[in-house]
Amino acid sequence: MKSLKQQDQEVYQAVKGEEKRQKEGMELIASENYVSRAVLEALGSVFTNKYSEGYPGKRYYGGQDFTDQVESLAIERAKKLFRAQHVNVQPHSGAPANMIVYSAVLQPGDKVLGMDLSHGGHLTHGHPVTLSAQIYNFTGYKTNSRGEIDYDALEKMARREKPKLMLAGFSAYSRKINYRRFTQIAKKVGAISMMDMAHIAGLIAGKVLTNPVPYFDIVTTTTHKTLRGPRGGMILCKKKFAKVIDQASFPGFQGGPHMNNIAAKAVAFGEALQPSFQKYARQVLKNAKVLEQELKKYGFKIVFGKTENHLILLDVFNSKGISGKQLEEALDKINITVNKNVIPDDPRSPLDPSGIRLGVPAVTTRGMKEKEMKQIAAWIQQATENINSDQALKKIRQEVVRFCKKFPLHKE
Ligand SMILES: Cc1ncc(COP(=O)(O)O)c(C=O)c1O
Question: Mean pLDDT throughout 393-407?
Fold first, then answer.
C-alpha cells in the first residue's frame, strides 16, 4: 500500500487500524470470513475502471474482451460449483439479489411466504422496515418447539395464503432445511420456490450440506460469507427463469456491473472448486459442533436445539441472566467479536435482545480447530462471569491477542 500511504494518510491509517483489529481479534460474526490475497488482488485490479453494462457478448460499451472473459469464467465456475442451469453474477450484494428476484417474478401486492426474522429469517425476507415489504405482501412462517421449521404449519399457511413465491433461507438459523418438503409444498399451491442460501453457500460448495439448487426454481446467495469470496451477490436459477432474472438485474435494477468484484468472485469460485475447500467446510462443521457442546457444558442455552451448520444462536438472557447486548459489549472488550440477536418471538427489543449469534467460518479460515474452539468457549464463559469487571476482562483480552497472533490471516 505504498501509494496509499504516500497520498492519503487518513485512509491509510484507517486501513491499517482495521488490519490490526482483524489480526488481533477473534471474529465470531457468522456472516464474516477472510478472503485470500488472490481475491483481494482481483478486487483491487484495473477492472474497477471499466463500464460493462449488459452481459458477455452483448454489451452497451466497447472494449469488453477481458470483462467478457472474466464474467464468463465466474459464471462457468459457479455453474460447476452448484450444478446450476443459469447463473447471474452481477448483483452487487445479497439484498439487491433478493430484490432483483422479487421484481422479476412478482407484481406489487403479490403474496410471499418468508421465514420470520426472530425465527432466523433475514430482513429482506419480508421485515416491515424493508422496501420489499412495502411493495409485496409478506407473511412469516416459524419454527416449532424442537427448533425445526414447522412444515405442517407452513403447508396450512401456504394453502390459506396461496402465495406467488415461497422463500426459504435464513441468517440466524442453525438447522438443516428439508428442501424436498419445502418445494413440494410450493408445488402443491402453485408457488415459485426460492432459497436464499447466503449463509451456507460455502458449506454447499464444500459438499458438507445438501445443494438446494436442483430443488428450487431460484436460489440467491451472497458470495462473502462461508463461500469466502468478495462482498457480492449471485442468482442461480432454472433455465426458464434466466431471461426474466437477467432483465430484472440489468437494466431493471442495476446499472454497470462491478467488474473488479466479478473478477474476485471468479477467483473465489476457483478456490471453492479445490479439494482444500471441502476440507475447510468439513472443519467448519466440526468446529461449530465443538463450540456448541462446550458452551452447553457451561450452561448456555442453544436456540433451535443444536447446530447443523456454521452458526450457533445462544439464548443468554434465559440461561445467564444477561442480555445479548451486554454480552456483545463484554466480548468486544476481550477482542471477541459477535452480534447480539433476537431469539424466536423475543419479548426484548432488537437493540437489546435475549441472544447472541456466533459463527466459526472466519476462525476456521485462520486454521483454528477443535482445541481452539474449547478455548474460545472458555473465554466466552469467563467474559460472562466477569461482565462487570473491566480489570478481569482486560487480562483475558491480553490472552486473546497473544492467541490470535499465532493464527495469521494469510500464510506469509
Ligand atoms: C440470508 C441473507 N440474505 C441476504 C443478506 C443480505 O446480504 P448483503 O448484506 O450482502 O446485502 C444477508 C446478510 O446478512 C443474509 O444473511
Answer: 97
